[in-house]
């Protein structure tokens, strides 16, 4: 297997609400919801850095496609990390997320590994870490 990830899919309970959170609240760019003409096909895509894309897809649609029952949500089984260039940017992003409707679950603070980080949950309970890691600074776009 080639170590390549091109699409990260977050499954959501309310696709329109999730699109509003990521598009209007966090400012991610998307053409909106596509595939609504297909049963279990409605999805929204967001372009991220380095060719990575974020997809939002209804939880029931993934369960249908994978032929698995819809399971309960759990914030502790998966986390998306967003590394930023400064401590101040951590605070800025956490504030943007909160104003967009996220729940701050851990305010930003100094970390044991020499950085600065905090956590929020999006409206579907997905956990995001926003971190300034001086050893892993993001590349300029």
TrEMBL record:
Pfam families: Glyoxalase (PF00903). PROSITE patterns: VOC. InterPro entries: Glyas_Bleomycin-R_OHBP_Dase, Glyas_Fos-R_dOase_dom, VOC_core. Residues 4-133 form the VOC domain. Gene3D superfamilies: 2,3-Dihydroxybiphenyl 1,2-Dioxygenase, domain 1. SUPFAM superfamilies: Glyoxalase/Bleomycin resistance protein/Dihydroxybiphenyl dioxygenase. CDD domains: VOC_like. This is VOC family protein. It comes from Ramlibacter cellulosilyticus.
């Amino acid at each position: 297997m080639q170590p390549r990830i091109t699409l990260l899919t977050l499954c959501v309970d309310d696709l329109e609400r999730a699109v509003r959170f990521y598009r209007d609240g966090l400012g991610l760019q998307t053409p909106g919801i596509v595939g609504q003409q297909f049963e279990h096909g409605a999805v929204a895509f967001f372009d991220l850095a380095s060719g990575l894309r974020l997809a939002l897809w209804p939880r029931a649609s993934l369960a249908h496609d994978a032929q698995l029952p819809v399971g309960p949500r759990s914030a502790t089984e998966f986390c998306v990390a967003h590394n930023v260039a400064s401590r101040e940017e951590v605070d800025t992003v956490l504030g943007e997320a909160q104003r967009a409707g996220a729940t701050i679950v851990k305010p930003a603070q100094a970390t044991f590994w020499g950085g600065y980080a905090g956590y929020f949950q999006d409206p579907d309970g997905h956990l995001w870490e926003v971190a300034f890691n001086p050893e892993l600074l993001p590349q300029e776009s």
